[in-house]
Design goal:
The chain folds into two domains: 254 residues, nicotinate phosphoribosyltransferase (Alpha-Beta Barrel); 174 residues, Aldolase class I (TIM Barrel). 39% of the residues lie in helices and 18% in strands. It has 16 helices and 19 strands.
Length: 453
């Protein structure tokens, strides 16, 4: 069977608009801007992610024979238009912020410039990829900040919304500072370190907790982390300590124990005491079980002697903020800036650039949203051209490079904007050029000239 392509990963109206554009000879260059209108409550920033998938999609965009056969079977599209789609390739350009960059409301994460049919057809896939990955990267970054240097492992795979989401969650978590993932496929695909312990079923499969721990320690003498809350957590800790002592006699070391339920603050203190009294001061305490940034923050503030956290469901679906008000809007067509005036959904016209300004200590101070051709002395431009004539420009950054980029970016964001409860609102200004253009178009939405009359 012919491999399924991604050209049909779009909404129907993208294709019906495309046929109408084609029938009316509309092939002019269009600029579409992808941005988030407002940040979710409690979010002081977003972490942009998903660009690599967008670029690879655009570079490989084409309709397969089976795609065209399916579209013909719907009875919606004309044969001449389907012939046109058979030869369609993306020929445009993309400007975007680097993945791992911090962005704020109304700032373009990326902009696409291409013949309008090509740019329009890409809308659904672009939003789909950037939306999910930006949501998750932001949630995971909040967990990293709350952990204050403690190790985090992605445990979300089994409850993410599908296989692809599980892979993207693992990638985004690692991008923002997680140490590893339990997702073995993600480890293979992205080169992320993999980590895991054992399940309660493993413990229950043996006649006793002691025998389960001893068996696992023999199988994995260099990486044993024992799950101690299957029956009685503190008794489980004592049994784990005994097994740890047996391992030490054989020249090995118990890596740690895992808590997956109960009052993690009080239990971690008691377990730490048990391990220390057994001489296992290097054995770590790993905690999991319905955690996200809120629980991590409370445990860290409470002084819980927890060395690492496994973060699963709530992070993998961004439970408190699972969606963004993300939009992909036309801002220019055939050199003519355009804008939308709908109440609550107005847009800013023209191809854009974002300039970031820093204070005397190198901390982020404010952003200015400007037209692409405007100059903002002292500001660092965030959008860079990453695709030209349908081809990716240069090698894409590795995941390790993106991880370093995020770390550098995040370190320059002042702490008030990172607060989990009431973050400060970062300043994003509109340049004189955009303000003037917006005012002109608000009076005459189609702009100056005969076409406006």
């Amino acid at each position: 069977m012919e491999e399924m392509g991604l050209a049909l990963a779009t909404d129907l109206y993208e294709l019906t608009m495309a046929q109408s554009y084609w029938e009316h000879g509309m092939h002019g260059q269009a600029v579409f801007s992808l941005f988030v209108r407002t940040l979710p409550q409690g979010r002081g920033y977003l972490v942009a992610a998903g660009l690599e998938d967008v670029l690879r999609y655009l570079e490989g965009l084409r309709f397969t024979a089976s795609d065209l056969q399916y579209l013909e079977s719907t009875g919606i599209f004309s044969p001449p238009f389907l012939e046109y789609l058979a030869g369609l390739r993306f020929t445009g350009e993309v400007w975007a912020v680097t993945e791992g960059s911090l962005v704020f409301a109304n700032e373009p994460i990326l902009e696409v410039k291409a013949p309008i049919i090509e740019a329009q057809l890409a809308e659904t896939y672009i939003i789909n990829q950037v939306h999910l990955q930006t949501v998750i990267a932001t949630k995971a970054a909040r967990c990293v900040w709350a952990a204050k240097g403690r190790v985090l492992v992605d445990f979300a795979f089994r409850r993410t919304h599908g296989l692809e989401a599980g892979l993207k969650v693992a990638r985004c978590c690692y991008l923002v500072g997680f140490a590893a993932t339990s997702n073995v496929l993600a480890g293979k695909v992205y080169g992320i370190p993999v980590a895991g312990t054992m399940a309660h079923s493993y413990v229950m499969a043996f006649p006793s907790e002691l025998e389960a721990f001893q068996a696992f320690a023999r199988s994995f003498p260099e990486r044993s982390v024992l799950l101690i809350d299957t029956y009685d957590t503190l008794q489980g800790a004592r049994i784990a300590a005994l097994v740890g002592q047996e391992m030490a006699q054989r020249g090995h070391r118990l890596r740690g124990v895992r808590l997956d339920s109960g009052d993690l603050l009080s239990l971690s203190r008691e377990v730490r005491k048990i391990l220390d009294e057994a001489g296992l001061t290097e054995a770590q305490i790993f905690a999991s079980g319905g955690l996200d940034e809120w629980e991590i923050e409370a445990l860290v503030r409470g002084g819980a002697p927890i060395d690492a956290f496994g973060i699963g469901t709530r992070m993998g679906v961004s439970a408190d903020a699972p969606w963004l008000d993300m939009a992909y809007k036309l801002v220019e067509y055939e050199g003519r800036p355009v804008l939308k005036l709908s109440q609550g959904k107005a847009t800013l016209p023209g191809a854009k650039q974002v300039f970031r300004f820093y204070d005397g200590k190198g901390a982020m101070a404010r952003d200015v949203l400007a037209l692409r051709g405007e100059q903002m002395p002292g500001g660092r431009p965030l959008l860079r051209q990453v695709m030209k004539e349908g081809r990716i420009l240069g090698p894409l950054p590795t995941l390790q490079e993106l991880r370093r980029h995020f770390h550098e970016e995040f370190a320059r964001l002042p702490e008030p904007y990172k607060d989990l409860h009431s973050p400060a609102k970062y300043t994003v200004e509109v340049s004189p050029g955009i303000a003037s253009l917006q005012q002109q178009l608000a009076i005459s939405p189609r702009g100056a000239g005969p076409s406006a009359r």
